[in-house]
Amino acid sequence: AEDIPLLANHLLRQAADRHKPFVRAFSTDAMKRLMTASWPGNVRQLVNVIEQCVALTSSPVISDALVEQALEGENTALPTFAEARNQFELNYLRKLLQITKGNVTHAARMAGRNRTEFYKLLSRHELEANDFKE
């Protein structure tokens, strides 16, 4: 949360420069709301919220109500296909490793993959088979 103000202000300047140069800042309450918001979609989600605020504002200062509205819209948004697939892969790999108690050969066989491919998937998702061994 402590890096949100710096990042949010940077993103605001970028969006304002592209769309509405008169937009200068967030109100104090708007910044507090950004700092306390949950950001499961990480930076992409923050970018979307700020872009929406800049697009909808007619004031140089973005209000708390506008941030709240943008956040509500963001919370109902679907993840991108890549994000959904990535989350599915992560959950699937975790489940396989739990079932097989970290046995990569068995997990790879269940997934219909060879061990090398399976290790690459584990690496991509920063998973360690040893974390699932009993």
TrEMBL record:
GO biological process: regulation of DNA-templated transcription
Classification via SUPFAM superfamilies: Homeodomain-like (SSF46689)
GO molecular function terms noted in the UniProt entry: ATP binding
Signal sequence extent: none
Ranges of residues in domain Sigma-54 factor interaction: 1-55
Domain of life of the source: Bacteria
Keywords on record: ATP-binding, Nucleotide-binding
The name this protein goes by in its record: Two-component system response regulator QseF/GlrR
